[in-house]
């Protein structure tokens, strides 16, 4: 009887663990299982070392200020976090205002569709997704508009994930992804009918550099929309709490430095854009974008337990716990940034590349 009881107990524990990890899954359903967590393109034996290297950037702040260092810094970050983002958040690595009666995923899709509606592209036209991640917005936008989307991301692992998702969604003929730096894009001048970036240009050391590249590849008369991460008019640099919140967001999201909302339009005009519209989409009557972070607190703790179990068992690479804990802490900084009103991840700017002057 003792051996039978032992077998039954072990079976219950194994079944419970399987249900907790594989059936209960993450905060939302999105196609990445906890048992498949990895370090992206990093060898699993090197995940912990790369995590430590990521944090070493912040011990040498002058290194972050060097533009040539930033791409590798951002690439390392996304190797570390991409699987965790997909598992715990979804295929769209950005925020959106909460919409009454809509799920988080539905609200996210509406937020993405608005971007392509703003640039007014037609079916069959080609548009650019600057900083596409694993392509969640790309697929929503392509399906909604009928346009062809070309995305660019610095991270090779994200390219492979995006291509796999595109094929699974039946959108691989409409969506393409290339690996590259959006500060030096491998596209010809005036080759796109429109462009957008959703919470991506915050990774650029100089906003002027990425805006000028997007300006270069756009056809004259085309529109570009960006959702920017910025500090708002409520931010006070002399307030230690404000500084702590913003620095926490920067450290946890691979940002070389958050910009002020007042810098965005000025930069766009500097590279030649006409500013059509500018608005903080997070301001009332929009519902709080950070409510998703607060409401997901139980899910985060559940996921953290799963990560600890998987790393302990050797299923997830060593260092996964540290990465997940970093993101958990960052969620608190983001929430504080939203609650105090000093930070917004969706300062929208809509720009037009001027038509070429007519020849006499």
Helical percentage: 40-55%
> Given the structure, what is the number of helices?
13
How far apart are the first and last residues' alpha carbons, in Å? 99 Å
- Look at the helices and sheets and give the structural class: alpha/beta
Low-confidence stretches: 7-16, 18-29
**Secondary-structure element order, N to C:** HHHHHEHEHEEHEHEHEHHHE
Number of beta-strand segments:
8
Q: Specify the overall morphology.
A: globular
Query: Radius of gyration, rounded?
Result: 21 Å
Percentage of residues in DSSP E strands: 15-25%
How confident overall, as mean pLDDT?
A: 89
* Oligomer state of the chains in this structure: single chain
What characterizes the major β-sheet? Answer: 8 strands, mixed
Domain SAM-dependent methyltransferase Erg6/SMT-type: 77-354
Catalytic activity: 24-methylidenelophenol + S-adenosyl-L-methionine = (Z)-24-ethylidenelophenol + S-adenosyl-L-homocysteine + H(+)
Protein name: Methyltransferase
Keywords: Lipid biosynthesis, Lipid metabolism, Methyltransferase, S-adenosyl-L-methionine, Steroid biosynthesis, Steroid metabolism, Sterol biosynthesis, Sterol metabolism, Transferase
Summarize the structure.
The chain is an alpha/beta fold. It is built from 13 helices and eight strands.
Keywords for this entry:
360 residues; alpha/beta; eight-stranded mixed sheet; 13 helices; 48% helix; globular; sterol metabolism
Could you explain the architecture of this structure?
This protein is of the alpha/beta class. Helices cover 48% and strands 16% of the residues. It is built from 13 helices and eight strands. The chain has helices spanning 2-23, 47-59, 61-65, 70-88, 104-119, 136-145, 156-168, 207-217, 240-252, 264-270, 291-295, 297-313, 320-340, and strands at 126-130, 148-153, 175-179, 192-198, 218-231, 259-260, 274-280, 343-352. Strands 1, 2, 3, 4, 5, 6, 7 and 8 form an eight-stranded mixed beta sheet that branches. Helix 7 links the parallel strand 2 and strand 3.
